[in-house]
Amino acid sequence: MFLKGKSAIVTGSTSGIGLAYAKAFASEGASVVINGFGDAADIEKERAALEATSGAKALYDAADMTKPDEIAAMVQRCHAELGGPDIIVNNAGIQFVAPIEDFPVEKWDAIIAINLSSAFHMMRAAVPLMKAAKWGRIISTASAHSLVASPAKSAYVTAKHGLAGLTKTIALETATFGITVNAISPGYVWTPLVEKQIPDTMAARNMTREQVMNDVLLDAQPTKEFVTVEQVAALALYLCRDEAKSITGANLSVDGGWTAA
Ligand code: NAD
């Protein structure tokens, strides 16, 4: 339990990749703050399960990643109730797909706010506390779309490229304080979100499940396999180890070879 006594905040951790990060940190004894939207009873069940796993505290904070004041308050709450934060993961994200001429302005603003600016606000609030502690781990879930583009994803690709630049900048600013700042860039990850798209696509395109998986979803991914949330979370856990202290400012791909092509 190498994270015993440490605290972690994971934004957007009520489902998918974020929840897997929270479980991984808890499995090593960290106290965690989970965040995001969803059914209150489901969230409470996950929170209680994290406490049972870690033997440490788990809090839920409903901070909306479009609201800088709520983000700063979540960091202060963690500091007051759990100490730290020792680890922060900027993970909350949304997607919207449309060509530029049809892209709704409010969707652009929301994606830039949630997928990019929230990471700035998280780091702005947490870095002074990490500098004082002389230890910190900052991880952002970027994407293969922080390295390459796809059509009809202007806001998402812009936000993720921005997150990669922000990661490098804050890595340089914190390098002598025992703090590392890295991005993890997954390809297609098997989450409930992806799974739910399959039956609709099978019907719309008259395809089998295998055809939808390989010819639609995994077209860009050379391994023709989804990344799992556990694989992404395992890398985040590694980045928190002392052995990973020289890895900073990196953008680490977990994308089945997508960005090698
Ligand atoms: P998901 O939809 O399962 O999880 C997104 C989380 O963000 C949820 O907990 C949701 O409640 C939260 N969220 C959304 N808006 C929020 C807001 N305004 N304030 C606070 N929380 C908010 O999706 P996921 O697949 O787990 O994605 C997590 C991250 O991984 C995102 O940044 C996404 O861009 C990135 N990513 C996902 C994939 C993939 O294939 N699934 C690939 C690459 C990168």
Description:
With 261 residues, this protein is α/β, with parallel strands linked by helices. It has one domain: NAD(P)-binding Rossmann-like Domain (Rossmann fold). The protein is built from nine helices and nine strands. The chain has helices spanning 16-27, 40-54, 68-81, 105-133, 154-174, 192-195, 197-205, 209-217, 229-239; strands spanning 7-10, 31-35, 58-61, 87-90, 136-141, 179-186, 189-190, 227-228, 251-254. A seven-stranded parallel sheet has the order 3-2-1-4-5-6-9, sandwiched between helices. The protein has a two-stranded parallel ribbon with strand order 7-8. It starts with 6 loop residues before the first strand and ends in a 7-residue tail after the last strand. The mean pLDDT is 96. Bound molecules: nicotinamide-adenine-dinucleotide. Nicotinamide-adenine-dinucleotide binds next to α1, α4 and α6.
Bound molecules: nicotinamide-adenine-dinucleotide
CATH topology: Rossmann fold
| Percentage of residues in helical conformation | 40-55%
Content of β-strand? 5-15%
Strand order of the largest sheet: 3-2-1-4-5-6-9
Termini Cα gap: 38 Å
Name the CATH architecture.
3-Layer(aba) Sandwich
Structural class: alpha/beta
Determine the CATH superfamily. NAD(P)-binding Rossmann-like Domain
Total DSSP E strands: 9
In the predicted model, the low-confidence regions spanning at least 5 consecutive residues are none
Number of helices: 9
